[in-house]
Amino acid sequence: MQNYLDILQKSALFADVDKRDIEKMLGCLLANIKTYNKNEYIVKASHTLLDVGIVLEGRINIIKEDYWGNRSILTTLKTGELFGEAFACAKTQYNIFSVVAAEKSKIMFINYEKITSPCQFACNFHTKIIKNMLKLMAQKNIMLTTKIEHLTQKTTRDKILSYLSTEAIKQNSHNFTIPFNRQELADFLSVDRSAMSAELSRMHKDGLIDYNKNKFTLNKEADF
Question: Which class is domain 153-218?
């Protein structure tokens, strides 16, 4: 696990915690690492979650699948990001989301109860990760609110523009890269892929955007 201390230190959960302290904590937190191939389920909906997952390598999708197998993507997570904390905290017996590897990925699982229960030594750095966890959960709520804003737009074009505008602001540039391929973006925005691709072409023709695969440019001078 020493190979991943740099990644863990950069993660939001271990922010401002020294690498030596992180290494000491991993045993206490019952940390274990598993590897998953592309498209392999990491967590399936309906399974009870007791652990928090940290992406050490690769990229994963948090998805929602309905009874008929239709899929929507809640979010995509990359190296250093966490998942599962809300359901592990709530101790719900029914998890409504699945977690799937978007590419070959390595995940560290940490027991949630061990995170939120200070150890017998009442270490200062353990108190710090409890505060970090609370901050993380608040940030996830903000992220969900932002996605709701995208999905409540009336048209496919408006959904695309809402998402791309948010990414441009977040990355502080009119040239930016998104974490989705076309199918993943369609799933994220809950739109048909063919309809979305056609709309992207029209938006390019109208001078609103330029794009190449997952790289986009917004035209600030365009007439919306």
Answer: mainly alpha
**Domain residue ranges of the chain, discontinuous segments joined by +:** 2-144, 153-218
In order, the DSSP letters of 133-193 are: HHHHHHHHHHHHHHHHHHHTSSSHHHHHHHHHHHHHHHHTSSEEE-S--HHHHHHHHT--H
Tell the CATH topology of 2-144: Jelly Rolls (2.60.120)
From first to last of the 224 residues of the chain, give the pLDDT tens digit.
778 999 999 999 999 999 988 988 888 888 999 999 999 999 998 888 889 999 999 999 999 988 788 889 989 999 999 999 988 888 776 778 999 999 999 999 999 988 888 666 556 678 889 899 989 988 888 888 999 999 999 999 999 999 999 999 999 999 999 999 999 999 999 999 999 999 999 999 999 999 999 999 999 776 65
